[in-house]
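Retro notes, item 3 of 5
We never archived the inputs for the N-carbamoyl-L-aspartate complex last cycle. Fixing that now. Sequence and ligand:
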Amino acid sequence: MIMETEIFPHRHLLGIQGLSPVEIESLLDLADSYVALNREADKKRGVLRGRTVINLFFENSTRTRTSFELAGKRLGADVINMQVATSSVNKGETLIDTAVTLNAMHLDVLVVRHPDSGAVKLLAEKVNCAVINGGDGTHEHPTQALLDALTIRRRKGRLSGLRVAICGDILHSRVARSNIHLLNIMGAEVRVVAPRTLLPTGIEALGVDVHHDMRTGLRDVDIVMMLRVQNERMSGNFVPSTREYFHFFGLDYNKLALAKPDALIMHPGPMNRGFEIDSDVADDVERSVIREQVEMGVAVRMAVLDVLARGKS
Ligand code: NCD
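Structure as it came back at the time:
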């Protein structure tokens, strides 16, 4: 029998960068088994019985927080949600104080979302428990990339050799960064498609082909991954207007026609319908796997909690 510690020999999950193909495959295999469990009437297992998971979210979240909560509960752990109003947080000092306080309560896993890149890693250095990055600033969102990979692998049977276009607000997207790392590690071919204002300088260094036009960027791709335009992280005018953005970079059927006929449509959510994606395209049952991504999110988070918390002291 393979032990969870052998699958994943790390104490924390802070990012995708640095993981090996075998570690990623093993996590996805374990998550696959949890997809099956989640479709049964009795979804509960006791593998994390007696363990405590705390969700510490300094930013808004629907999918990530809820699915971590469900994941922990389905594995039998006690799960506590802490909502921290961003406005009242005195960064740095408060973050460390909070971590040290929670640490004293003998928890096993801390899931953290924070608006600052690097904050989760900083916190991980101050505690004894396992830390999972639930999204830090514009840096990484590893469980999102894993759930995207699981969705793709189940539909396409593989990740390697696939051509993936990640489109839209790359600049502010931790989802894009984690996906770029994961897809490269697994041997996929990654393109980013975005206006110049929404691309970080030097993005090519991450191993992507850069396109500024959806007409070239979507040509013959297997996967079209759309991103939300993150207005809340923008201090000025990064995009001209909703209508103009949609015209050039929004996913509609005309642009989708350039991708392979069986290309899948993905979006991490929350969606801005009519801004980065046409509503009918988003709801297209033949092509869109957006709801499936949410389902995979619970299974992936169960796998991650399992490998980090089971059998560890
Ligand atoms: C993403 C996030 O928070 O990074 N959402 C999510 O976790 N599904 C993407 C986004 O907010 O646009």
